[in-house]
Specification:
- The protein has 348 residues and is α+β, with helices and mostly antiparallel strands.
- It has 2 domains: 216 residues, no CATH class; 112 residues, no CATH class.
- The protein contains 5 helices and 19 strands.
- A hairpin with a 5-residue loop joins β2 and β3.
- The N and C termini lie far apart (126 Å).
Amino acid sequence: MGSRTDRSGRVSWLAVLGWTGLAAMLVGAFFAALGSLNQTVYGASSFVERYLEAIAEDDITRAATTPGVALDAEELAAAGLPADISTAMQRSGVVESGPEDIHIVEEVANDDGTRTVTATYRLQAAIITTTFDVRPIDPLYGVLNRWEFETSPLAIVDVTAAHHPFFTVGSLTLDTRALKTGDELAAFVQTTPYLVIAPAVYSFDYDDELLTAQEVELAVEPSTRTAVTVDAQATPVFAERVQTQVDQFLQNCADQVTLYPTDCPFGIDISDRVIGDPAWSISAFPVVTLVPGESAFEMPATAGVAHITVDLQSLFDGDEFTFEEDRTFTIALDARIRADGSIAVQLK
C-alpha cells in the first residue's frame, strides 16, 4: 500500500512540475512575442514609417492625428504663429505627391527613453534623409508601446497670393484673406501662413476667366518653414473686357459735339470761327495691356488717335473751309476685379 502511495505522489508532483514548466514556457513565449511586437509593429521605427506611409497613401487624416503631429496653443505661440493659423491644407486631395521608397536606416535608443529614428525617402527626384525624435506615451493595454513625435513634423508654408487673394493647391481653392480683418482685406498682395503635412510635395496655381497663375511645385520637409508665391496675371479675357470699357468711354467722348469733350483725353484749340458742329471719331483705339501695379492691374500710358472734322471761317479773310486733323492722345488706367466678378476701371 505504501509503495503505491509513493508512486502516486511522485506522479502528481511530476504532473505539477510539467504543468508549471509548460506555463512558464507559455509565459516566456508571451513575453517574447510581446517584446517582438514592441520592437517591430509597436516600435519607434514602425511608428515613423506608418506616419510616412499615411502621407504616401494620401491618408492625411491618419497622418494629422498621429500623436505629436498637432500643435497646441502653447506650441504655436512658441513658434511665433497665430493661434488661429489655418490647417485647411491638411486634407486628402491636396498633396501632389508624398514620400516614396521609404526606408528606416537607423534607430537609436537615448538615455531618457526617447528614440531617434532616421528615415530616407524620395520626394520627386530628390532623396531626403530626415531624423525624427519620438518619445514613449502611455502604452496600449498597459503593455504595447506607443509613441509620439517629440517635435511636430508639421511644416509652415507662407503662401503669397500676388494680385489676387485666391490660390489653388491640389484640388482645393483657398482665400488668403479668410482669417483677416480691416485694412488687410484690401491688400493687392496677401501673405498667409498655413500648417501643412510634411514631408510632401504641393502644387500651387490659379486659373479662372480673368486671372491665371503658373503652377509652382514646392517640396516641403518636416518641421521647416518655407514660402511660395502664386503670381496671378491678367488673362486675355480680362484685357478684352477692359478694352470694351475703354472703347465705349472713348466713343462717348467722340459723341460729344464740342472741341473739348468733357473729362476726355483729347480736344483742340482753334483760332478761327467755328461755324459748324465739331465731329469727333476715334481713328485708333489704344490697345489695352494689363500689368500688376501696387494696388491694381494697370494699363500704362498708351497712345490712341482721335480725328476731328469741323467747318470754320477764317478770321483773316472770311473764307469758309472744313478743317480735319488727327489728334494723338494717351490714356492710362487701373483695373480691379470686384467681389461679384465685374471689373472696375479707373482712369488716371
